[in-house]
Amino acid sequence: MTKKETFQTITGRTLSLEGLEEREREFLAAVQRMYEEQPEWSEFASWWAEAFRRSRLSVDSVCYRICQDLEARLGIVQGKVSPPDYRDYLADLIEVRFGSRYRFCKETGTDPGHLSRVFASRSEFSLHALRMILEKLDAALVIEPAEDLANRVSPERAARALAAFTR
Amino acid sequence: MRIGPECVFLIPVVRDSDRRPHPPILWRLLQDTLIRTFGAVTGPEAVVYQKIGTVPGAWSPAEGNPPVEDLSRKYAVAIQADRVDELRALLRRAGNSFDQRSVYLSVAGIAELIEIRPEDGFLEV
């Protein structure tokens, strides 16, 4: 049986686990063992940040992004982080399509200050503006049942995905 | 190796205005910004995330009103002394992003409350 070589984030973004270095695989295996103990949100955040620092992996490693995602799931299920909304989806799409939020703003003429305020939940995009942005991101607005969202952000789902890869 | 003063700061886990928790993107932005600014994970200059914990705190919404209990995340950062103002500026932006009126910072054991003003801006995207 082949190992599952992808990890899906809370926003549905698929991260490839193919071609990881041995130390990245070892790091993820340690993360998976810790995660299965269902740690408290900040306890996990502290643990993985220290483990990551000691591993000397780059923040460009997919491991960094996976750990941030795992941490968010714990925070959501423990009531300390709000579930992802369109802002989180936008941030991920921008990262995938443009590489950085800075480049996205530059190439699409989006005001970075306004984008920062939106990400801070201090401002909103109008539906018209959001449609324009989605067009540039080659994305569409979808309304889904809350149950589907809850399933996608569950720590158990992520733990299973990691286990399938590391075992 | 001597680095500089240990700076400890607190980020409450709920917004001041409506007491709601923050979205995942904000915690990501804070972490990314800290690493980008102080090279926490990859750089030799700074040591970030020696400790992150949730601690109870309190603030008073207005004079005469009882303080509101807050749960905060505590971060400890060791940076060079001449970069403390840079950290203060970062925390002012974080304060706006995390919808806070003030942010607690302790530099080498000396505590201060950083007042957050709208003109301080937000965590950069």
Topology, please?
The complex is a heterodimer of chains A (167) and B (125).
Chain A: E1 6-8, E2 14-16, H1 22-35, H2 41-55, H3 62-77, H4 86-98, H5 101-108, H6 112-119, H7 127-136, H8 146-152, H9 155-166
Antiparallel strand pairs in A: 1-2
Chain B: E1 6-12, H1 24-38, E2 47-59, E3 68-78, H2 84-97, E4 102-107, E5 110-115
Antiparallel strand pairs in B: 1-3, 1-4, 2-3, 4-5
Characterise the protein shown here:
The complex is a heterodimer of chains A (167) and B (125). Chain A is mainly α. Chain A has helices spanning 22-35, 41-55, 62-77, 86-98, 101-108, 112-119, 127-136, 146-152, 155-166; strands at 6-8, 14-16. Chain A folds into two domains: 3-81 and 148-166, no CATH class; 86-144, 434 Repressor (Amino-terminal Domain), CATH 1.10.260. A two-stranded antiparallel sheet of chain A has the order 1-2. Chain A is globular, with a radius of gyration of 17 Å. Helix content of chain B is 23%, strand content 34%. Chain B has helices at 24-38, 84-97; strands at 6-12, 47-59, 68-78, 102-107, 110-115. In chain B, strand 4 and strand 5 (110-115) form a beta hairpin. Chain B is globular, with a radius of gyration of 14 Å. The model of chain B is unreliable at 41-53 (pLDDT under 50). Classes of the chains: A mainly alpha (167), B alpha+beta (125). Chain A binds chain B through residues 10, 40-43, 45-46, 49-50, 52-53, 56-59, 64, 68, 71-72, 75-76, 79-82, 84-85, 87-88, 91, 101-102, 105, 112-113, 115-117, 119-122, and chain B through 13, 15, 20-29, 31-32, 35, 40-42, 48-54, 71, 73, 96-99, 121-125.
